[in-house]
């Protein structure tokens, strides 16, 4: 049963990490424009091309 | 991507203004706005939010809104400034609920993990350890995630009423406190998992519900915003200065440029131009006004600059009157009680009573307060409306998603409920039954080269017929021809040179008109002299929407007889009404339409109003439920509950079928939830429900309700 002493904190920590990640992404506006992100991938910006020396 | 124009000197701190740009459709639009807008003078960055169809523009502090709108215009987009924090606030509520849901979900899963070990037979010190761990997770989680319910229940209790949140709050807090006591005394059953799972399911319902909760905005605010935010005031010495609309006074002289909207009611002093009065009358045809004529705020000056003597500002303007009508109409509509609230009004007292009776019953039977309380908690947890809380929002979210895919944008959940009840349909004419834009005929006679020249000419003018011509020719493979010496003469047309030859898009002469079939309306024809020696006379007419007759027939089959209410001339309305086979009434002002709707409501009917113009705004707001085409004015779109995309009217009967299907499913869901209670409550009262049974029962009933609602994905036909 001693393994529980490691596993339970592990499980909780992972869960809290997920929760923290969700809170972080909400605060930083990751859900502000879900449709825009899907569109922006299609924009061909010239300055984003690999540099050709 | 934000792009900073390299050439400009940025010493002052830029100011940010938000604009609505509804015409963004693709990645190309995003990149065009974000790349080209900062290249305009005074604009630093532009950031598109595609989901909200808004653009945040950072610009120099001395730039006024019209300058920015002109900058949008220069890159080919129509922008509307956004004020007010209503949308921001609504987003904040949703975010708070999402955070609460995340915490409840996280805690429920972890506590469930521990509970499963206990149910599988953990005994003695291991069980106590797990209980304590559960308590450590659950107490802060319940305190955090339960706040929306506690706050609402407290508010209801203080007002001396009860709502669904009262039994939820009592159930959750009693279960948590009792479990804490059990944990401390080494008891067998704790309810932490039940309390948290309950919160998680209910919050999921609340989040979905919040997504469906429409803005309470009536659209009246937008209506006033449709007037110009300010005007060029002319001083006595002839100098002009931009002043905000609020600072205008009656008696001021203002200069209104072509393409500008009026900020105040006034009388024209000098200049003659044509005005788009559709704001007030719904009539799409422009009206020529000269010196001495009265013009109202919000009308659009089409051709030439005019000087205006201001006669009314602010609340005295004619447009403010429509806004007031809309405001009062919206207040009347907010009296509608949503089906979920009606259900909870019946349900909450029953739950209280059952739990109290159970407690009393077990006490009388001599079970002792400890066991009696445990059983009463089991009753509260079991009866707590998990499935009931999900029954309405899941069905509505699913059906709205399906409707959105077929071009029907539902603004709030209660609109679906009201639409399912509608028993008659009232249509506006111009822009609703008809397309609301002049459609040219006779373009087929043009060859490819002539089309290119015609497009070049049409692009030089902002006259409605030129815009219509441009749109009609836009689909052609040829681009506009390059023209020289372009000159637009107001009221006459556009003249230019193409490869040295004179070309024109102008008013037709009497001879040219005599050559073709008779024309009843001279303002709806143009002559195209395209350098080929031949003059083409193009006639424009406002075409009836495709499928209008079929849509009206389907509505009749659904039990919604239709009628036309229009501000247009009575004979034009009568002709359309006769061709569609429905009764029609013309010459109605906004207040007349409102009065007709109030009459119908008083007679016990539940009218569906379909309209588009600003003059339909009060009627859209007052009707039991309302729809508007996407081509509608933004006030029409704001005031309507549902907006349909595309030219076809078939969306109207389709929306009604979908709404009725969603109501059927909601009722089935209620049936399922109540059936579950009928089975589970006697067990709970008898004391057979352990935390394990409650967990299984709660999740099964919720899943069944969700699965039943998902069938609605295919309900929009």
Task: Please characterize this protein's 3D structure.
The complex is a heterodimer of chains A (53) and B (717). Chain A is an all-alpha fold and 53 residues long. Chain A contains 2 helices and no strands. Chain A has helices at 3-27, 34-40. Chain A is elongated. Chain B is α+β, with helices and mostly antiparallel strands. Chain B folds into 5 domains: 15-82, 2-Layer Sandwich (Alpha-Beta Plaits); 92-213 and 336-394, no CATH class; 228-316, Calcium-transporting ATPase, cytoplasmic transduction domain A (Distorted Sandwich), CATH 2.70.150; 402-435 and 545-660, 3-Layer(aba) Sandwich (Rossmann fold), CATH 3.40.50; 447-529, Calcium-transporting ATPase, cytoplasmic domain N. Chain B contains 25 helices and 26 strands. In chain B, the strands form 5 sheets. Chain B has a 7-stranded mixed beta sheet with strand order 14-26-25-24-15-22-23, with helices on both faces. In chain B, strands 6-5-7-13-8-11 form a 6-stranded antiparallel beta sheet, with no helix packed on it. In chain B, strands 16-21-20-19-18-17 form a 6-stranded antiparallel beta sheet. Chain B starts with 14 loop residues before the first strand and ends in a 7-residue tail after the last helix. Chain A binds chain B through residues 1, 8, 11-12, 15-16, 18-19, 22-23, 26, 32-36, 39-45, and chain B through 1, 26-28, 30-31, 35, 48-52, 95, 98-99, 102-103, 106, 109-110, 113-114, 126, 133, 137.
């Amino acid at each position: 049963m001693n393994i529980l002493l490691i596993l339970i904190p592990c499980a909780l920590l992972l869960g809290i990490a997920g929760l923290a990640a969700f809170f972080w992404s909400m605060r930083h506006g990751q859900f502000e424009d879900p449709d825009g992100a899907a569109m922006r991938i299609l924009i061909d910006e010239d300055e984003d091309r690999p540099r050709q020396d | 991507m934000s792009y900073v124009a390299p050439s400009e000197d940025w010493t002052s701190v830029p100011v940010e203004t938000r604009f609505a740009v509804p015409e963004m459709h693709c990645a190309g639009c995003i990149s065009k706005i974000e790349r080209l807008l900062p290249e305009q003078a005074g604009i630093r960055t532009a950031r598109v939010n595609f989901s909200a169809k808004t653009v945040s523009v950072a610009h120099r502090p001395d730039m006024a809104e019209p300058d920015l709108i002109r900058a949008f215009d220069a890159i080919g987009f129509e922008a509307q400034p956004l004020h007010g924090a209503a949308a921001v606030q609504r987003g904040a509520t949703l975010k708070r609920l999402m955070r609460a849901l995340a915490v409840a979900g996280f805690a429920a899963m972890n506590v469930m993990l521990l509970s499963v070990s206990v149910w599988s037979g953990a005994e003695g010190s291991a069980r106590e350890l797990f209980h304590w761990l559960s308590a450590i997770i659950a107490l802060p989680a319940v305190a955090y995630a339960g706040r929306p319910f506690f706050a609402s229940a407290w508010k209801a209790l203080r007002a001396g009423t009860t709502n669904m949140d009262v039994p939820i709050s009592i159930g959750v807090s009693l279960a948590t406190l009792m479990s804490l006591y059990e944990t401390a005394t080494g008891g067998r059953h704790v309810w932490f998992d039940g309390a948290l799972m309950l919160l998680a399911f209910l919050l999921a319902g609340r989040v979905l519900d919040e997504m469906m909760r429409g803005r309470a905005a009536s659209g009246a605010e937008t209506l006033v915003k449709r007037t110009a935010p300010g005007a060029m005031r002319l001083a006595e010495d002839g100098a002009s200065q931009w002043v905000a609309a609020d600072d205008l006074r009656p008696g001021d002289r203002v200069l209104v440029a072509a393409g500008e909207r009026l900020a105040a009611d006034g009388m024209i002093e000098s200049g003659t131009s044509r005005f788009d009065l559709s704001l007030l009358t719904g009539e799409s045809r422009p009206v020529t006004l000269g010196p001495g004529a009265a013009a109202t705020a919000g009308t659009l000056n089409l051709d030439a600059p005019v000087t205006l003597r201001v006669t009314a500002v602010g609340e005295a303007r004619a447009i403010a009157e429509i806004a007031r009508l809309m405001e009062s109409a919206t207040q009347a509509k907010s009296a509608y009680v949503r089906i979920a609230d009606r259900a909870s009004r019946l349900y909450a007292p029953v739950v209280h009573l059952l739990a109290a009776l159970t407690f009393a019953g077990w006490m009388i039977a001599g079970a002792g307060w400890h066991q009696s309380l445990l059983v009463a908690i089991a009753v509260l947890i079991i009866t707590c409306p998990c499935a009931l809380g999900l029954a309405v929002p899941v069905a509505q979210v699913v059906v709205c998603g399906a409707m959105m895919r077929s071009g029907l944008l539902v603004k709030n959940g209660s609109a679906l409920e009201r639409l399912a009840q509608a028993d008659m349909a009232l249509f506006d004419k111009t822009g609703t039954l008809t397309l609301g834009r002049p459609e040219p005929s006779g373009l087929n006679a043009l060859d490819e080269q002539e089309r290119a020249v015609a497009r070049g000419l049409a692009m030089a003018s902002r006259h409605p017929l030129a815009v219509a011509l441009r749109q009609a020719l836009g689909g052609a493979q040829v681009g506009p021809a390059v023209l020289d010496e372009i000159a637009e003469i107001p009221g006459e047309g556009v003249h230019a040179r193409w490869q040295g030859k004179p070309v024109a898009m102008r008013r037709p002469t009497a001879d040219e008109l005599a050559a073709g079939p008779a024309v009843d309306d001279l303002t709806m024809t143009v002559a195209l002299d395209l350098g080929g020696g031949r003059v083409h006379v193009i006639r424009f007419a406002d075409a009836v929407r495709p499928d209008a007759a079929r849509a009206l027939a389907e509505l009749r089959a659904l039990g919604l007889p239709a009628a036309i209410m229009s501000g247009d001339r009575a004979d034009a309305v009568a002709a359309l009404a006769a061709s569609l086979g429905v009764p029609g009434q013309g010459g109605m002002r906004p207040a007349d339409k409102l009065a007709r709707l109030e009459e119908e409501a008083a007679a016990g009917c539940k009218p569906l109003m379909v309209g588009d113009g600003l003059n339909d705004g009060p009627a859209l707001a007052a009707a039991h439920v309302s729809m508007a085409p996407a081509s509608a004015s933004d006030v029409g779109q704001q005031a309507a509950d549902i907006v349909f995309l595309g030219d076809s009217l078939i969306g109207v009967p389709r929306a009604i079928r979908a709404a009725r299907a969603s109501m059927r499913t909601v009722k089935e869901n209620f049936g399922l939830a109540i059936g579950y209670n009928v089975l589970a409550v006697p067990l709970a009262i008898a004391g057979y429900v352990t935390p394990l049974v409650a967990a299984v029962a709660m999740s099964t009933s919720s899943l069944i309700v969700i699965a039943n609602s998902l069938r609605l994905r295919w309900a929009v036909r």
